[in-house]
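User: Hey, my collaborator sent me this sequence without any context and asked if I could get a structure. I don't really work with proteins. Can you help?
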Amino acid sequence: MYKVDAERVYVLDRVRRDPRAEKRLARMLAAIHPKEIIDIDDQQLNRMVIEHGWTGGHEQRTGAYHREGSPVLVFSTFRWDNKELARVKKQYPALDSCLLLGQNPVTTRSRFNQHGPDWCVCQLAKEIHSIYGCLHACDYCHVEDFVNIMLDLERLVDFVAKVIKATPDQHLYKYDNYTDQICFEPEYGASELLVPFFGTQDDKYILLYTKSDNVDHLLDLDHRGKTIINWSLSPRTQSTKIEKGTPPFQRRIAAMQKCQDAGYTVRVRVSPIIPVENWQDEYTEMIDLLLASIKPDVITLDVVGFMSPSQMKVALDTSLFDKYARALLDQQERLERPSWGKHVFPDEYRKELYEHVIGEIRKRVPGQIVSICNETFDMWEIMAPALGANSNPDEFTCCCGPNSVPGHHLLKG
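Assistant: No problem. I've predicted the 3D structure and written it out in structure-token form, which is a compact way to encode the shape of the chain:
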């Protein structure tokens, strides 16, 4: 588990009523060594939300929060009784807005995502969650300065089994894009439960979603080829100066190598693409190192966004940007647009970014399957020549697509 300098941690009273959750709590606290452990109830937690000004970062723009130091840790359990959940939600609405009620172990991702004026292509899917908040501190992240950790994971596995039965047409389940769960292992124990569980499912796979190099706990798990691990990867400047608290790209690639050697399917999201000074050379360096040893079955690309130009200047140190990108950002800021969606940079510039990265990938692996993420229909059409067989927005494979599993016809070879 990552080192966490926590002065105090907060434990919801319902954790104490669940022996397995309390045992998991003890294991995590032994690794954290907090100076103070404070037991609280929903009323006290609601007061904390108001005092800290936690407003529900999951619904806010990207980069809305910059965290200094370790986050506040809150240990809790899910609420499996919908009537109780509705009652507490009505009584403490602040907890609902911040995902602190113990809700949403599984959420539904839409087929199309509307971000302001942008309609972006995605794929309908169920996703698994057990933590909200992160130990990394990326400048573009939307999560706030707390981490809410659900401890009743055995019940989560039982719930996921029911979800799998109810969604026979979905074959890949992403876990967890509300956090970086691997940072909390092995003390947390989610990998230890979920990886072997999916190994018993005939045609179902779990996708672990991470920037971490904390992977040794995964190497001896009985995954049976049913766990896919996806790394978000970024080059030198971004991985050290913007993605604060994350391992630099060389360490992430070394972690990929370990997991690939252990038989896991490895995937890569080049995300978010940020045009720092000398970005072309930095992406070339990163791709050289990546593809010298790693054989991802698919690589997904995504350009930084989910904010307006002025918000981007607040969220990110744009002095690190390429001179042309800075000028373009200034130009976009002067546009009279009532709202901004996902995309800040115009189509032609995103095309330039994508084409460079794809070109460097294909120089080394000519047949490499590549996809784009949360992009407009116009961009799918623009990028069709580079995407090749994977260019149909109605049927494509990507890192976390619900049917992007080994054996998919777009992943063969």
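In plain terms: The first strand starts at residue 8 and ends at 12. You can pass these tokens on to your collaborator as they are.
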